[in-house]
Every structure is written in C-alpha cells, then in structure tokens.
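Known limitations

Structure tokens in this collection are predictions and should be treated as such. Users comparing against experimental data should check residue numbering before alignment. To illustrate the layout, the record for L-lactate oxidase is reproduced below. The input appears on top and the generated tokens appear beneath it.
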Amino acid sequence: MTTYYNGFPQSDRNETIHMVNVDELEERAKKVMPEGAYYYIASGAENEWTWRNNIASFNHFQIVPRALTNMDNPQTDTEFMGMKLKTPIMISPIACHGIAHKDAEVATQEGVLLQLGMLLNMKIF
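Generated tokens:
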C-alpha cells in the first residue's frame, strides 16, 4: 500500500547509494523521487539567494587528503565536536522529511549529523 505525505507518495526504500560527489547524489535522487518532492528538497526558498550564496561559499573550500596511501578501502568516517560520523555530511533543519521517506527524520539521520528543527514529522526521542 502506498502512503502519502502532503500529496506526495512516500518511499519506503532502504538502499545504499554509491556516489562520489553531491552531483551524483542529486542525479540519483532525481530519478527515484517524485518531481515535486525532489525540487522542494533540492532548491531554496523564494528567490534562492541564500542557497546560491551557500554554494558559492562552499566552492572556495577543498577537502585535501593528507596522504593517498592504501586506497583499496577508503574510510570516510570522522569526528565532529565529539560525535562520530560515518560520513562528513551534516544536515541543517529542513521541513517535510516525510516527502523523501516514510520514516521522515529517523531515515534522514542515519549516518549523518542531523540538526533538528522546531517542527518534526514524528516523535524520534
């Protein structure tokens, strides 16, 4: 049975997405998400001024590895403010996690540092 969130069909798929960069993640998400849900998540508010400036700011930085030795099994885990992360991905507060997956914020926080907003789709504590 398909469940819906604000008119969007919700996914219950749980799979590993193999990607090298954010562009590959966006391309994969665009293929599996309903169009309206994808564009809600992949865009910014109003005229997208903040979204564009955030991207421009991040383009001034690079992640430079200290050494490229033994790349047979690369490790992406790291620590941030005492928290161990599987990947160096952090998610700021956004609304409507339920349009991406039926488990909403619970699914979003798997393997990333998630900063929660004031309004949640479900009780997670």
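For this record: The chain has one domain: 4-114. The longest helix spans residues 22-32. Please report discrepancies through the issue tracker.
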